[in-house]
Design a protein that fits this description.
mainly alpha; 57% helix
Length: 313
């Protein structure tokens, strides 16, 4: 496989011109992707998950042409394929060739191709069974699972790198969350917002941007139909954006509030539904909430614990 923006046949001829190549390269199958880097990473991860890579530091795989084509077609199913963009050369067709059901390549695209590497990563990360806990080995498998489309693997890569706690790993932890968010796994934006959330101005602005990306995309009815988790995160977003809110944030907050209100309105129990709708109104209009201090009879003083708890609100 080669990622290239020119005609595949021209690229094959270019590679064949090298004197170290014993026979010319031929194009067995060609496919087009919006992001060839992402497609190549996916195919390599799928083949590596089956143990077909010749060497860890080389992009060579010991496979049949059918296995290679299956991996590319699988990437098309997972990453999306522009209509009419794939064609087969010679006797091959654009339909997938399914002759191997042993692992990732050749399995149904509707399956979870990342499940094998992810389970293996979990075994090393948690030291399950007789396996010796090994975070570095778990990272190798989590990377494969992430490349194959596991959103949870991106979150675990952040966690694993954070535990190693070297300067390199701290940077890598953040980069995995960014990549996961860019690939559409929006919980990565939520995690990254929590990482950035703080007193530093630049980090505070980054936190708001991450919250914005999350709440722009999240569908409450899918992520948290009863609002238990989203309420807390939405409150964090509103507080984080208090001093650096843009018109874009106003639009996102308004649009999400509308979706969230519709979701909460479907809660069947009246008391619970009304309470959560009222809670949403309180978040959106904090100035309308008035705190009334309990009265104290003349001559009595409030205990110190009262004032301590008051100032911690």
């Amino acid at each position: 496989m080669t990622q290239y923006t020119r005609d595949p046949a021209a690229r094959a001829a270019e590679l064949s011109s090298a004197t170290g190549v014993p026979t010319p390269f031929t194009v067995a199958y060609e496919a087009y992707f919006d992001d060839c880097d992402e497609a190549e990473a996916y195919v390599h991860a799928a083949l590596e998950a089956k143990g077909l890579r010749v060497a860890p530091n080389r992009e060579f795989f010991a496979i049949t042409s059918t296995e290679a084509i299956n991996a590319v077609v699988m990437a098309q199913a997972a990453l999306g394929r522009p209509s009419g963009s794939a064609s087969a050369i010679g006797a091959e067709t654009s339909q997938r060739v399914n002759t191997d059901h042993r692992g990732v390549v050749g399995s149904d695209p509707g399956d979870e191709p990342w499940r094998g590497p992810f389970d293996e990563a979990e075994r090393f990360y948690y030291g399950r069974g007789d396996t010796v806990m090994d975070i570095k080995r778990s990272i190798v498998q989590y990377k494969l699972a992430a490349r194959l489309g596991s959103g949870e693997a991106y979150l675990m890569l952040y966690q694993a790198h954070s535990e190693l706690d070297t300067p390199h790993d701290r940077r890598a932890a953040i980069e995995w969350l960014k990549e996961g968010g860019d690939r559409g796994f929006i919980d990565c934006w939520l995690e990254l917002a929590s990482v950035y959330d703080g007193d530093d101005r630049i980090n505070a602005e980054n936190a708001v941007k991450c919250f914005r990306k999350y709440f722009e995309a999240v569908m409450p009815e899918d992520a948290d139909p009863e609002g238990s988790r989203i309420f807390a995160k939405f409150k964090q977003y509103l507080e984080a954006s208090k001093y650096c809110r843009s018109s874009r944030d106003d639009e996102v907050i308004q649009a999400f509030s509308t979706r969230f209100r519709c979701c909460l309105s479907t809660i069947p129990h009246t008391r619970e539904r009304d309470a959560k709708l009222a809670q949403l109104d309180q978040l959106l209009n904090p100035s309308q909430n008035k705190t009334t201090l309990p009265s104290t009879p003349r001559g009595e003083t409030k205990p110190k614990s009262f004032w301590r708890s008051l100032f911690q609100l």
